[in-house]
Each structure stands twice: as structure tokens, then as C-alpha cells.
UniProtKB/TrEMBL annotation, chain A:
Native source organism of the sequence: Parasphingorhabdus marina DSM 22363
CDD domains to which the protein is assigned, alphabetical: ABC_PstB_phosphate_transporter
SMART domains documented for this protein: AAA
UniProt KW keywords: ATP-binding, Nucleotide-binding, Phosphate transport, Transport
Phylogenetic placement of the source organism: Bacteria, Pseudomonadati, Pseudomonadota, Alphaproteobacteria, Sphingomonadales
Name recorded for this polypeptide: Phosphate ABC transporter ATP-binding protein, PhoT family (TC 3.A.1.7.1)
UniProtKB/TrEMBL annotation, chain B:
Single biological process term from Gene Ontology: phosphate ion transport
Transmembrane segments: 6-25, 46-67, 128-150, 170-190, 229-250, 271-292, 312-339, 360-381, 428-452
Principal location listed in the UniProt entry: membrane
GO CC terms in record: plasma membrane
Annotated function: Part of the binding-protein-dependent transport system for phosphate; probably responsible for the translocation of the substrate across the membrane.
The protein, known as: Phosphate transport system permease protein
Subcellular location field: Cell inner membrane; Cell membrane
CDD domains listed in its UniProt record: TM_PBP2
SUPFAM superfamilies to which the protein is assigned, alphabetical: MetI-like
Membrane topology: Multi-pass membrane protein
Highest classification ranks of the organism: Bacteria, Pseudomonadati, Pseudomonadota, Alphaproteobacteria, Sphingomonadales
Family: Belongs to the binding-protein-dependent transport system permease family. CysTW subfamily.
Annotated organism of origin: Parasphingorhabdus marina DSM 22363
Domain ABC transmembrane type-1: 231-448
Molecular function as annotated in GO: phosphate transmembrane transporter activity
Automatic annotation (TrEMBL), chain C:
Subcellular location: Cell inner membrane; Cell membrane
Gene3D superfamilies for this protein: MetI-like (1.10.3720.10)
Membrane topology per record: Multi-pass membrane protein
Ranges where the ABC transmembrane type-1 domain occurs: 204-411
Organism: Parasphingorhabdus marina DSM 22363
UniProt keyword Transmembrane, yes or no: yes
GO BP: phosphate ion transmembrane transport
PROSITE patterns reported in the protein's UniProt record: ABC_TM1
Keyword vocabulary terms for this entry: Cell membrane, Membrane, Transmembrane, Transmembrane helix, Transport
GO MF term set: phosphate transmembrane transporter activity
Name used for this protein in its record: Phosphate transport system permease protein PstA
Subcellular location, principal: membrane
UniProt GO cellular component terms: plasma membrane
């Protein structure tokens, strides 16, 4: 596991034209996902302007910024969830393991299995806990039999730290769980399809502090097994869970770097203003 | 004709009353010493007088028209011509009603010569009461109008009074729906009770032979066993029609909401709604003229026996087509009510669109869809013209869709469009069937609305 | 929580590129395409049914607006013994022509031209066509005129391509003389026993009178009830009861309203059978809930800020509603009303119950005259054995559908034109 304090600032990628001061890549080894000069348009309106960021396997990457800054929009580009919005248009290059995910031959169904997502509001399906977890493996054919499926469900729930709480009531409805449990169920659901990257869109904003702490602990547990990208507007949370932080403002990437640097010694004035609470 | 002249006269007098009332109030408003006291604008004073002039007279006329028929008959009976009338109540009644019809100009000639003798007394009595009512009504207009006009003074709260009357009118208007519901229920129950005094409810509800006769047969059988009708209704409305309407309606809704490009949806939705706007008599004619013969020929060609040109299948299929837009719009609403987070959650797992629809959206929308289907069934079983024109009259208990079956609504029409006596059990049976139909559709609706409501609440 | 990592075991990354996985993906996409195609099929089938229905009605019905005609030469001066045109002008010309024995004149002319059995070729109403032609142009009476007159029904059907062998043979013989003309009778006449003479005017007028009664009752009551329920009604059990009954009435089968009309309006109140008044009353009870429901939605859509603004300048609650809320909600209420009226216009079953299925040969003149309506007329004609009625039935359906589509189009236009987004 990478120690974030000693991480080198690997500057082996050329900076993008506009965010010249941002570090595109951070962390050891080859990046899991890279984005170059990404623009997103909603009809006429440009929501993301020329963003380039690398996401590393070993790190938790946090996207912060005031609401409406485009951080969630950018996150949704990484597994092409923006495809579900008819007017959204994405330009630029986004790769997963070197493959262009917007290339015509890229299969969006496989892509989303490899890049899982956890949403702002817990959204378990109105099915049993078991079926919620088994849904992904079933549609992707990841289990060859009932036993293997049971095993996947158990493993996923254990990884999400939910097994102990629900193992006796796997047939209860997923919607009957508490908010925090529902969100961990959604994380377990994402884990069950064995993704390489997990995107989390403000996963704790609908939860109380205790549930939030559990989710943060969970993120810490699974770091290194998946590349994790988390959008949050809670700066303390970004500081607690992430090793890399990207600060977005009005659709542009203002600054990207090691979390501790961003919070203690930001390069940009805007970042400093935001972090010290001048606006947001 | 006198009625409409009287009505016109009252309206004109009302307008005059309005004018006088307003003029008097305008004089308060302009005179210096009373101006500060004026509560309402002159307009309202005008309405105050006008309503006083019109409303009591109108109420009086309504009551008068309800009570005079009885009074007219009594007066006519006290005339010398009435002495020769037979004592037998039935012939007496028919003579009297015939005489009255002639006197009122609804009928030209009498079948019974005795009726002719009663025409004159009737005519005299009717015109006497009419004149009396007219004079009284006009007097009432004047009396009330003048009375209220004299009561006008600057501090009169005319607006408040007018508004109170308006409010009562509003309340009465909203009560009409309740009165209608009660009216339906009471009239159906009333006639059904008369029917069940002649035919046992058990025979009616559980009997399997439908062959209504005016008099009971040798073993006391009456031929009022409604089970074949219930079966026919369910077979056509709840089975065949739904087999057509549910898949087509549901898949149409899914395609329109989930797949279709915006402009396709914009055109297709109204086109589907036209299906719901086509009158049922047109569907009935279509079923009888085109669908039924085609299905019969088809059945004959594949060797099915008992194929009839009036078939359950023809009526059911056409009814299903009629119901498609209904099912489709209910399904549309239910699917739209599923939070988009569900859909996104499934898509983000890498599910395809159809997997998301089949495994997440439909199960989540199921209660709403089921509610919609129940409403559709309730509509299908109450549908009349298609089955009257295409399903036939033979009360068969068969599951062969190519044979003829009959339904509750068909039999209601058949029983009531003959020229029977109103009191015969055959006529009254229609009301008993109507009562069953009313209760069943009411229950289906209540259940469906409850299911849909519960479902909506679950996602709010 | 902390033992998660240890129990999870060794993870084998999924090999998305493996053949098995690729095959599976291909299968899933095939299922996706099938499902989508299924949806499209459902839509196309549904729309196809509609198109088929309309085509069948057009195919059968358009012929109903035309009639087959044979030319007939009438030597009026010889036949009438020199009647002068000026005698047959003015309002009572019709009766005078009758007195002149026009029917015999026409029959004699037919026999002269087509032989003794010639009258069997022509419609029984042929002489009326001659009469109308003279009324239009009395000068005809002073000359020898050739008029195109309608043929009898079987010949008409045969000429239009659907007749029996005998009629086909006659058509064959007369083929160079037979022609087609527009059937004005169909728009101007009422019901008749001869399909060549039937028309929809009587039924259409009955429909219009019935709709007038329905509108006059259902619209004010519906609007007032909607205003009361939405603006003033206290939330209590009685209001709930009213709401429940309105919602249920909207779903009660129409035939039940017919039973109500029969039991209450005819048997209890003694109103005349077959009258547009009773039909209108019955349909008003059916239409009123539709207007109330759409009216409530329209009233609900008026934002509270408007009410507050009016109350703020000192308007009474009644003034607020009648001066501000009602005018703003009116387009929505009208849309709902037109849709409700369109439904009432197409309604048949309840009117059968109250006797509006009578044979109406003269159009009704008032609300209490015996009348029938267009859908019932369609139903009655559909039962006729004579093949000539098939096209008349479909033609009447076309007229009814034109009315309904126009009403719906107006409703949609109103909705789009006046729909305000607050």
C-alpha cells in the first residue's frame, strides 16, 4: 500500500493547456484511468472545460468544489452514465487501462461492470438483500452456480462490512435497511461485479455522522483493491479518506495534487479561498 | 310553450329588478350624507333584488309542477264524465294516462273510446292549474322583488348576502355527484328488491341456465341463472381483452417511455390516444363487420367446430384494442413514478436497458401496473356496444373463444329494449344485473385506486 | 468490520475478453434488440389496428356519400299539359308539384324510356329528386329535360361492386348509362326504410340537441362543483364523500347511467321516452364528473400567489375565485369539457336504455320531441339486413369520427395554446 506522505509527484504527463498548474497524474505505477482535455456540454451549456486527470489504483481520489462546479458531471463521464442524458455530449479522451472508453468498439455494459458506481442517495432495488447483491453477477454471468453466487454475495457483504448485520435476513427487502446500511448495501452491490474502479458520488451526503464514519472506514478497508474516486463537498471527509484531491470550480479543474498539500499548501488562491471557507 | 314564455317573463322581470335595485343603490352612493354608510357596490344591490325576485318564484314553480299532476287527476275525476269510468284499477289507469297524453298534445287519438270523454275534463283541469300557477308565480316575483327593493339601504350588506347564496349554489353543485351516486344505488336496489321478490337471489347468482321467461316453468325454474352471463363477461372482458391489451399496452408504454426518440413519442402518443376516443359503437361495428367473419373463416379453415359469426374472440380482441391506450397510459404513469435512481443504479451495474426494464423498473412499477389493469378490467366488463354487436345472445358456458357467449351488459340491453311491461321479472332482471355490474366495477375501482395510491406513496 | 480483508479471499479478476464472456455479451445484446423490437412491434400493431379500422370505414363509407344514377328524359310540357314555370315558385311549390302528380309523371317517363319494368330500376325516391330539381329551377317545367336520378338499392350496391348476380347482370346491361353522383340526400334526410333515401340529418340534429342539453347542465354544475371542492370545501368526511363519489362516477359503466335514466327520469319523473331532454340529462350526469376532475386540476394549477395578491387588495373569497382564479383556469376547464363532450357524443348504450332507438323519420324540433342520435343511428343501421345499409353505416361513422376528431383537435389546440407554466 502506498504511503501518501512519501508519494512522489510523478509528472510524466504533459499538463493540459488551461490547467497548467495542476498535476495530472499522482501516485505510483501506471494510472488506472486517464482523462485528457475532457469537455462536457449539456446542449449549449458547457459543464466541464478541458479537464485532464489520472486516477491511480492505489489511491483514493477525491473531487471537491462548490456545488454546481461539475465534479459529479465529470465523475459520470468515467463510466459513461452521462449517456443516459440525451442532451449531454462528451469530448476529449478518457481511457481505462489504455482503452478509450468512448471508442465505438467499447462496450458500455462491460465498461460499467468494470467501473462501478455508488450514488448520492442510497438506491437499493426494491428486492431482497440477496437479490440486490446477486443482480450484477447474475446479469453478467459471473457465477456458474447457486453456490458460487452465494459465495459472491457473502464475500461482497463481508467486504462492505454488512455481513454480520444482515446474514440472518438476506431475504428481507433491501429498502427495509437503515440509510447507512442501504448505502453499504449499494457498495456491496458494486463490489459484487468485481469492478476495477469504484466511483462514489457524495456517498455520505444523505447519512448521519455514525453511518458516515462506517462508510469512510469501509473506503479505507477496500483501498488498494479498487481504484476509488469519491465526490464530496465535505472537505474534512476528503482530507480523511483520500490521498489525492482535485479541486473543481465552474467546470474547470483548478488544482490536483496530494491531499495533504492541497489542504495545507495550495498553489492556487482560489483553492485556498475555498478551503478556508471564503465561498462554497 | 307557455312554460318557456313564463320562464322568459321571469328572466325579464329579474333583469328589471336588477336594474331598479342598482339604480336605487347608485343614488345612495352618490348622495353626500349616505355615502359613508354604503357597504356594497350598487351592482350587488341589483343582484340582491334580482335574486329575491327570481329564486322564490322559480322554487315555487318547481314545487307546483311536482304537485299539480296529482291535483289535475283529482279535479278531472271529480268531473261528471268520470262517473262512467270502470272501477278496475288497471284499465282505469290506462284510460286516465291516455286521456292526459291527448290533452297535453303528446298523442293524437285514443285507443279506448272512454279516454276521449276524459280528455275535456283533463284539458280544463290542466289549463286551470297552469293559469293558477302562472299568476301565482308572477305575483311572487312582484311581491318579493318589491319587498327586497324596499329593504335596500346604504348599510345593507348586499355583497355578503349574495356571496352566501353563491356559496350555497356551489355546495349544491358539488352535491349533485353524491346525489347521482345515491340515486344509482337506490334505484338499482329498489328495482332489484322487486326482482328478488319474484326470483330467488340464489337461483339468480348461482343458477347456470339463462333463458328468461315471464312465468316460471313446470318445476318452478325461471331461467334467471346468471352464471353463464358472468362467465361470458369475464371471458371476454377480463381474459381475452386483457390478453390483447396488457402485452400491447405495456410494451407500447415501455417503448415510448424508454426507447423512442422524442419526436416519435410526440406523434405516437396522440395517435394511440385516438384509439381510446373512437366511439364503442364504431368498434362494435368493426368487430361485427370485419373481425368476426374473418375469425370465423379462420376457425373453419383450421377445423374448429362450433365457430360462430358472433364470437367471444372477435368481441374480446376488439375490446382489447380499445383498452390498449388505457393500459399504456397507466403503465406509462407507473413507470415514470419509479425514481430514476433505480434506473441509474441498474445501468451503473452494467445492466442493459432491457435488463433494467425487466428486472428493476417493471417489478418496481408492478403495483401501479396491476392497479391500472384492474381499472382496465372494470372498464372492459362494463363495456356494452362491442359485446352487443359482436358477442351474441346465446348464454353458453364455453371456453371455446370461437363460439358465441353473452355478457351482463348485452343482456341488460336485450331485456330493456323490448316492449315489456315494466313490472315483469324480465325487465327487473336487467336492474339486478346492473346492480351486480355496479358493485363489481365499484369494488374493482376502489381496490385499484387504493393499490395505485399506496404505490405512489411508497415513492414519495 | 475489521476482518473484512481477511475473509474475502483471493480475488480473480474477471476476464472480460474471454470467449465465454464475449459470447454472453453478444447474447445479452441480442436480447436487448429483441426486446426493443418487441416494443416497436407493439406500437406498430396498435397503430396498425387504428389504421386498419379507419381504412375499413373509409373503404366502405366513402361510397355511402355517392349514389348511382340513371339518366331520365322527361318531356314536361307534354306530361303536364303545359304547366307554366311561374305557377311553381314560392313557398308552397312543393305541395303544388305533388298535386300536379309529379310522381306519376316520373313513373310514366321511366316506363317510356326503360320499358314496363323500368320503375324497378329506380329508387322509390327518384321523383323527389325531380321535385327538388324543379324547385331549384322552375324553368325545367317548360322544356324537355334530362335528369340523373338515383337507382334502386341493389343496383346501386352492384354498380359499386358488391352486389348479387342478378343485379350485376342488370348493371352489365346498363353499364354505358349508369353514372355516379353526390348523394345530397344522405346529408339532408332522416332515417328511412330504403337505404337510397336514408340520411343522417335527423340523427345529427338529435345529437346536437342532446349535446346542448348535456352542456347546459354539466358545464355549470361541473365548474361550480370543481370550484367549491378546490377552493372552499372544508377537509372533512362530507367532502371526502363527495370526492369519492365523483371519482367513482367517472368510472361507472355508461350503461348504468342508462338504467338510472330509465328508473328515475322516465319512470319516476314521467319525462317523455326517446326525448333529447332525457338523453341530455343522462349524459350530463355522465359528463359532469369528467368536467369536475379536469376543472379541479385546472384550478389547482393556478398558483396561490394570485389568490394572495387578490386577497391582499381586499377582495372577498368569492371575488378572488370568480375574478381571478376562474378566468385563469378556464382554458383547462374548457379542454376537459370538450373531451367530456366528445365522449358523450360517441355514447350509445345509456341512450338505448331510455328509448332513443326509435325510428325517427322527421328531425326533432325541440328537447321533448322523439329523437335519436348519431351513434344510435349507426347501431340501428348496422342491424339492417339490406346490403345498402353497410355503406350508409360506415358513412355515418365517418361523419361521427370527423366530429370527434375535430373536437379532440380543438381540445389539444386549446391545451397547447393556453397552457401556462407558472
Amino acid at each position: 500500500m502506498t504511503d501518501m506522505q512519501t508519494a512522489e509527484m510523478a509528472d510524466n504527463n504533459s499538463p493540459s493547456t488551461e490547467s497548467t498548474l495542476s498535476e495530472i497524474s499522482a501516485g505510483d505505477g501506471p494510472p488506472k484511468m486517464t482523462t485528457r482535455n475532457v469537455n462536457v456540454f449539456y446542449g449549449e451549456k458547457q459543464a466541464i472545460k478541458d479537464v485532464s486527470i489520472d486516477v491511480n489504483m492505489d489511491n483514493v481520489t477525491a473531487f471537491i468544489g462548490p456545488s454546481g462546479c461539475g465534479k459529479s458531471t465529470f465523475l459520470r463521464c468515467l463510466n459513461r452514465m452521462n449517456d443516459t442524458i440525451p442532451i449531454a455530449k462528451v469530448t476529449g479522451d478518457i481511457t481505462l487501462e489504455g482503452e478509450d472508453i468512448y471508442a465505438p468498439q467499447m462496450d458500455v455494459v462491460q465498461l460499467r461492470a468494470r467501473v462501478g458506481m455508488v450514488f448520492q442517495k442510497p438506491n437499493p432495488f426494491p428486492k431482497s438483500i440477496y437479490d440486490n447483491i446477486a443482480y450484477g453477477p447474475k446479469i453478467h454471468g459471473l457465477a456458474t452456480g447457486k453456490e458460487e453466487l452465494d459465495q459472491i454475495v457473502e464475500n461482497s457483504l463481508q467486504r462492505a462490512g454488512l455481513w454480520g448485520e444482515v446474514k440472518d435476513r438476506l431475504q428481507d427487502s433491501g429498502t427495509a435497511l437503515s440509510g447507512g446500511q442501504q448505502q453499504r448495501l449499494c457498495i456491496a452491490r458494486a463490489i459484487a461485479v468485481d469492478p476495477e474502479v469504484i466511483l462514489m458520488d457524495e456517498p455520505c451526503s444523505a447519512l448521519d455522522p455514525i453511518a458516515t464514519a462506517k462508510i469512510e472506514e469501509l473506503i479505507h478497508e477496500i483501498r488498494g483493491k479498487y481504484a476509488i474516486v469519491i465526490v464530496t463537498h465535505n472537505m474534512q471527509q476528503a482530507a480523511r479518506v483520500s490521498q489525492r484531491t482535485a479541486f473543481f470550480h465552474l467546470g474547470t479543474l483548478v488544482e490536483y495534487g496530494v491531499t495533504s498539500d492541497i489542504f495545507t499548501n495550495p498553489v492556487q488562491d482560489k483553492t485556498r479561498d475555498y478551503i478556508t471557507g471564503r465561498y462554497g | 310553450m307557455t312554460g318557456s314564455i313564463l320562464f322568459l317573463l321571469i328572466v325579464i322581470l329579474g333583469a328589471l329588478a336588477w336594474f331598479f335595485g342598482k339604480a336605487k343603490a347608485a343614488s345612495f352612493a352618490s348622495s353626500a350624507d349616505s355615502r359613508s354608510l354604503v357597504h356594497s357596490r350598487p351592482n350587488y344591490h341589483g343582484w340582491y333584488v334580482a335574486l329575491w325576485a327570481i329564486v322564490p318564484a322559480t322554487v315555487f314553480l318547481i314545487v307546483w309542477n311536482l304537485v299539480t299532476p296529482g291535483l289535475v287527476t283529482e279535479t278531472a275525476l271529480s268531473s261528471p264524465a268520470a262517473q262512467q269510468l270502470p272501477q278496475d284499477a288497471f284499465t282505469r289507469g290506462s284510460i286516465l294516462s291516455e286521456a292526459r297524453a291527448i290533452a297535453q298534445g303528446q298523442q293524437d287519438q285514443a285507443f279506448n273510446p272512454l279516454s276521449e270523454t276524459m280528455v275535456e275534463p283533463y284539458r280544463a283541469a290542466i289549463s286551470w292549474y297552469q293559469t293558477l300557477g302562472m299568476v301565482a308565480a308572477l305575483l311572487l316575483v312582484f311581491a318579493c322583488g318589491v319587498f327586497s327593493w324596499l329593504r335596500l339601504k346604504p348599510e345593507l350588506r348586499a355583497r355578503t348576502k349574495i356571496e352566501r347564496v353563491t356559496m350555497i349554489t356551489l355546495l349544491l353543485a358539488s352535491l349533485i355527484a353524491t346525489i347521482t351516486t345515491v340515486g344509482i344505488f337506490v334505484s338499482l336496489i329498489f328495482e332489484s328488491v322487486r326482482f328478488f321478490s319474484m326470483v330467488s337471489p340464489l337461483d339468480f347468482l348461482f343458477g347456470t341456465e339463462w333463458n328468461p321467461k315471464a312465468v316460471a316453468g313446470p318445476r318452478g325454474e325461471t331461467g334467471f341463472g346468471a352464471i353463464p352471463l358472468f362467465w361470458g363477461t369475464v371471458f371476454i372482458g377480463a381474459i381475452i381483452a386483457m390478453i390483447v391489451a396488457i402485452p400491447l399496452g405495456l410494451m407500447s408504454a415501455i417503448y415510448l417511455t424508454q426507447y423512442a426518440p422524442a419526436n416519435f413519442r410526440q406523434w405516437m402518443k396522440p395517435i394511440l390516444e385516438i384509439l381510446a376516443g373512437v366511439p364503442t359503437v364504431v368498434y362494435g361495428y368493426f368487430a361485427a363487420l370485419t373481425v368476426a367473419p374473418a375469425l370465423r373463416d379462420f376457425a373453419v379453415s383450421i377445423g374448429i367446430s362450433g365457430a360462430s359469426s358472433e364470437s367471444a374472440l372477435a368481441a374480446g380482441v376488439v375490446m382489447g384494442i380499445m383498452i390498449i391506450p388505457f393500459v399504456s397510459s397507466m403503465a406509462d404513469d407507473s413507470i415514470a413514478a419509479v425514481p430514476s435512481a433505480m434506473r441509474d443504479g441498474s445501468l451503473a451495474m452494467g445492466a442493459t436497458k432491457s435488463e433494467t426494464i425487466k428486472k428493476v423498473l417493471i417489478p418496481a412499477a408492478l403495483p401501479g401496473v396491476v392497479g391500472g389493469v384492474l381499472l382496465a378490467v372494470s372498464r372492459a366488463i362494463g363495456e356494452t356496444m362491442i359485446v352487443v354487436m359482436a358477442a351474441g345472445l346465446a348464454a353458453n358456458m364455453t371456453a371455446n373463444p370461437f363460439s358465441s357467449v353473452t355478457t351482463v351488459t348485452t343482456q341488460i340491453v336485450k331485456l330493456l329494449t323490448g316492449d315489456q311491461e315494466f313490472d315483469s321479472p324480465k325487465t327487473l332482471a336487467a336492474f339486478a344485473l346492473g346492480l351486480v355490474l355496479f358493485i363489481v366495477t365499484l369494488l374493482l375501482n376502489l381496490i385499484a385506486l387504493r393499490v395505485v395510491k399506496k404505490y405512489r406513496e411508497a415513492y414519495e | 468490520m475489521n476482518n473484512v480483508a481477511t475473509t474475502s479471499g483471493v480475488r480473480r479478476p474477471t476476464d472480460w475478453q474471454s470467449d465465454a464472456m464475449q459470447k454472453r455479451i453478444a447474447k445479452r445484446y441480442a436480447a436487448e434488440r429483441r426486446f426493443k423490437a418487441l416494443g416497436l412491434t407493439a406500437i406498430v400493431l396498435s397503430a396498425g389496428f387504428l389504421a386498419f379500422l379507419l381504412l375499413v370505414m373509409m373503404g366502405n363509407g366513402l361510397r355511402g356519400f355517392t349514389q348511382t344514377e340513371l339518366p331520365l328524359e322527361i318531356d314536361f310540357p307534354a306530361m303536364t299539359g303545359g304547366a307554366s314555370a311561374s305557377q311553381y315558385e314560392g313557398p308552397d311549390a312543393d305541395a303544388k308539384l305533388r298535386a300536379l302528380g309529379l310522381q306519376d309523371i316520373v313513373n310514366t317517363s321511366i316506363e317510356l324510356q326503360y320499358g314496363d319494368e323500368g320503375t324497378e330500376l329506380f329508387s322509390g325516391g327518384a321523383w323527389r329528386a325531380v321535385s327538388n330539381a324543379i324547385l331549384d329551377d322552375p324553368a325545367l317545367l317548360e322544356q324537355t329535360a334530362t335528369l340523373s336520378l338515383p337507382v334502386e338499392s341493389e343496383l346501386d350496391v352492384a354498380y359499386k361492386g358488391d352486389g348479387n348476380p342478378e343485379a350485376e347482370r342488370k348493371v352489365e346491361e346498363l353499364s354505358d348509362q349508369l353514372g355516379t353522383g353526390f348523394n345530397w340526400n344522405f346529408l339532408g334526410n332522416s332515417d328511412a326504410t330504403d337505404p337510397m333515401q336514408v340520411g343522417i340529418w335527423g340523427a345529427l340534429k338529435g345529437s346536437l340537441i342532446t349535446m346542448f342539453v348535456t352542456l347546459a347542465l354539466a358545464f355549470p354544475i361541473g365548474v361550480l362543483a370543481a370550484l367549491y371542492l378546490e377552493e372552499y370545501a372544508p377537509k372533512n368526511r362530507y367532502t371526502d364523500m363527495i370526492e369519492v363519489s365523483i371519482n367513482n362516477l367517472a368510472a361507472v359503466p355508461s350503461i348504468i347511467f342508462g338504467l338510472l335514466g330509465l328508473a328515475v327520469f322516465l319512470n319516476l319523473f314521467g319525462l317523455p321516452r326517446s326525448a333529447a331532454l332525457v338523453g341530455g340529462l343522462t349524459l350530463a350526469l355522465m359528463t359532469m364528473p369528467v368536467i369536475v376532475i379536469s376543472g379541479r386540476n385546472a384550478v389547482k394549477a393556478v398558483p396561490p400567489s394570485i389568490r394572495e395578491a387578490a386577497l391582499g387588495v381586499g377582495a372577498s373569497p368569492i371575488q378572488v375565485v370568480f375574478h381571478h382564479v376562474l378566468p385563469l383556469a378556464l382554458p383547462g376547464i374548457l379542454t376537459g369539457t370538450i373531451i367530456g363532450m366528445a365522449r358523450a357524443l360517441g355514447e350509445t348504450a345509456p341512450l338505448l336504455m331510455i328509448g332513443m332507438r326509435a325510428f325517427i323519420a322527421t328531425p326533432p324540433d325541440g328537447v321533448t320531441d322523439p329523437a335519436t342520435v348519431l351513434p344510435v343511428q349507426i347501431f340501428l343501421w348496422s342491424d339492417e339486413v339490406n346490403r345498402g345499409f353497410v355503406e350508409k353505416t360506415s358513412a355515418a361513422i365517418i361523419v361521427l369520427l370527423i366530429f370527434l376528431l375535430t373536437m379532440n383537435a380543438v381540445a389539444i389546440y386549446l391545451r397547447n395554446r393556453f397552457e401556462t407554466r407558472w
